[in-house]
């Protein structure tokens, strides 16, 4: 079994009452490193929000979506989507399955421990990175990462505790195809252009 720095959950389970020093970031590194989304419209900044409702129709609605994507590319380079078709229940199930995985005893999770990112599944804590040039504060995060190899998902490789909820990935693949079509059309290309070059 690899020796790793304790996981975030492992630290919490020990009953720590103070944040460990290796996780504390100096104040100067925190200012522009917030993971909290800013309110859309704050300070006059409005990130483009694109409503994908009616995406599959070949009418004015689809043309409006493509134009919105084109405008977002030209002004921001990115956009937020709503009404993307991924059911809320599937997103909530995925979140719950990750919680179940991380709440297991550390010994159960260690079967998946690896920083070899050619593996289909990796579990690791952000504080266990070796070989840094200088000490860097860790993030307060444990990670379970599941990835496709050559765009093929092996759902049997996923921890059984999370396997049923991987329906989420199938929805993400469908959403990726939708976005690929819209971006291709926004660039003035055939709708299958980006998907055929991947």
UniProtKB/TrEMBL annotation:
| InterPro entries, A to Z | DIOX_N, IPNS-like_sf
- Record bears the keyword Disulfide bond: no
- List the Pfam families hit by this protein, alphabetically: DIOX_N
Q: Where is the Non-haem dioxygenase N-terminal domain?
A: 47-149
Enumerate the Gene3D superfamilies for this protein.
Answer: B-lactam Antibiotic, Isopenicillin N Synthase, Chain (2.60.120.330)
Domain of life per record: Eukaryota
> What does the UniProt keyword field contain?
Iron, Metal-binding, Oxidoreductase
Kindly list the GO molecular function terms attached to this UniProt entry. metal ion binding; oxidoreductase activity
**Protein name per its UniProtKB record:** Non-haem dioxygenase N-terminal domain-containing protein
